[in-house]
Design a protein that fits this description.
44% helix, elongated
């Protein structure tokens, strides 16, 4: 016997095309929580939005946003709607939001990987992908905070051979995520979402696709 949640999902699926539902299922098979991304005090909207777009493109489901000094906003023109399909975790209520975020990620089994070109770092191509990892990107001018550096399990660096010493944060994030997610998908590591996680996200995406979904759900529950 179907429970009410299953009945509701089946009802809502009737408002979505088969092509759309199949696309959701296909994309969910390539989503991962083995890697996650942390944005610490990114004040330039176009940069945070571009990183979010890269996360969605390369299958990173969760983005953690730390707001100590600056409020993080998403530019719809740059993010191109990618933010709609991701899970955001915001840290802005504490005195030290960075510490709160890092402790939360540690508690979930992630190793903390700071991204910086200015420290004794692991080169991107040598990075060990077997562990769950949270990649932390910092404010544009100064990079990640000392709090991050002092608590990081490792520091990651993109190899550079030119005069310029650093990359724009959005470019750096795209390079790192493309490289490491490709390695992940061609490995034997269990990087996929669980069945439960897939179903939860599938339901969320179905609801986000339907116009006036709250009224439709209310009508269904009333009839039930």
């Amino acid at each position: 016997m179907l429970n009410n949640n299953t009945k509701l999902l089946t009802y809502l699926e009737g408002f979505v095309t088969e092509k759309r539902k199949n696309l959701f299922r296909q994309i969910l098979k390539n989503r991962t929580r083995h890697f996650t991304v942390v944005l610490e005090d990114i004040y330039q909207q176009h940069n945070s939005s571009a990183v979010i777009r890269s996360c969605e493109i390369f299958g990173i489901q969760d983005v953690h946003v730390i707001e100590n000094k600056y409020i993080s906003n998403v530019s719809k023109n740059i993010a191109k709607g990618s933010q709609k399909w991701l899970s955001f975790h915001n840290y802005k209520k504490e005195t030290n939001n960075t510490k709160t975020c890092l402790n939360s990620l540690k508690g979930k089994g992630y190793q903390l990987i700071a991204t910086s070109p200015h420290h004794n770092s692991c080169l991107l191509h040598d990075f060990d992908i077997t562990k769950k990892s949270a990649f932390i990107f910092g404010v544009e001018k100064t990079g990640v905070s000392n709090e991050v550096i002092n608590n990081a399990d490792g520091i990651l660096k993109i190899p550079m051979v030119g005069f310029t010493e650093s990359l724009n944060i959005s470019v750096a994030a795209a390079i790192i995520l493309e490289n490491l997610t490709y390695k992940l998908r061609t490995s034997s590591i269990n990087w996929n979402l669980t069945h439960k996680e897939e179903e939860e996200l599938y339901t969320q995406w179905i609801e986000k696709t339907i116009k006036n979904v709250d009224k439709i759900k209310e009508h269904f529950l009333k009839d039930e």
